[in-house]
Write a structure and sequence with these properties.
245 residues
Length: 245
């Protein structure tokens, strides 16, 4: 396990100040990974995942969503999310500036960059792919799959990995079918992993403490989806060789 360096900083989308959190290996990152959190914004779990990815050799940046940190009031989070999503181009731009920040701070080229997201973050990274962001890979964990601006053929540059709970009431079967048809029409290289009986939010252990039937942690789906992501990373991002002296 390599030593890691952690930094916090601010960056901007227009006049909105956003908070970034970055964990990097001390030397020679394999790739840069943008982490987009859930509708509630960045949490300790997201920071922990950034540090874990850094320990595996990746430069990992947790981005901000609203410029207000972690939102504990879910009604407020939904209102902020609806406002942000109301303009799809602006919504996509919010995460484009985060990707630019990762690119600048990691010093890595586009084919060494990926974006991963959870719940709303999963939706956001898929929107990044649809908009043609120059990324090697996009990974969505229990993300929303619908979009007002479907991908156009030849537009998506990234490979996609979508990890979905079959019993997720926020992403019903019709939405899944529409998404897969969209990917086929657009000619996207998309892998989809579906976990039977699993609902929304399956990667977050704190969801087991919530009373909402739509959301629950599932240890197996969490483990298997993480393994699928790492397998894709291994396939696409070979370790950078240390220069000989």
């Amino acid at each position: 396990m390599s030593s890691i360096e952690v930094n916090t900083f601010t960056y901007h989308h227009g006049d909105i100040e956003l908070a970034g959190y970055m964990a990097q290996p001390s030397r020679y990152p394999r790739a840069g990974i943008l982490i987009v959190p859930t509708i509630a914004g960045p949490t300790d779990i997201m920071y922990e995942r950034a540090r874990w990815l850094a320990s595996q050799g990746y430069s990992a940046m947790v981005c901000d969503i609203y410029g207000q940190g972690f939102i504990t009031d879910m009604k407020k989070a939904r209102r902020l999310a609806d406002e942000l999503r109301s303009d799809v181009s602006y919504y996509r731009e919010r995460f484009r500036v985060a990707l630019d920040e990762l690119r600048s701070r990691s010093g890595l080229a586009n084919r060494r960059l990926a974006a991963i997201g959870y719940c709303m973050g999963g939706e956001a990274v898929l929107e990044m792919a649809r908009s043609g962001e120059d990324l090697a890979l996009v990974v969505s964990f229990h993300g929303l799959l619908a979009t007002p601006l479907p991908a156009k053929r030849g537009k998506v540059k990234a490979r996609l990995l979508v990890c979905h709970g079959r019993a997720d009431p926020l992403v019903p079967p019709k939405q899944v079918r529409t998404f897969l048809e969209e990917m086929d029409v657009a000619g996207v290289d998309c892998h989809m992993h579906i976990y039977s009986g699993v609902v929304h939010g399956f990667t977050d252990p704190t969801n087991s403490q919530k009373t909402m039937d739509a959301v629950s942690y599932n240890a197996s789906a969490d483990r298997q989806s993480k393994a699928a992501m790492i397998s894709m990373f291994d396939e696409m991002f070979e370790p950078k060789k240390t220069p000989s002296h």
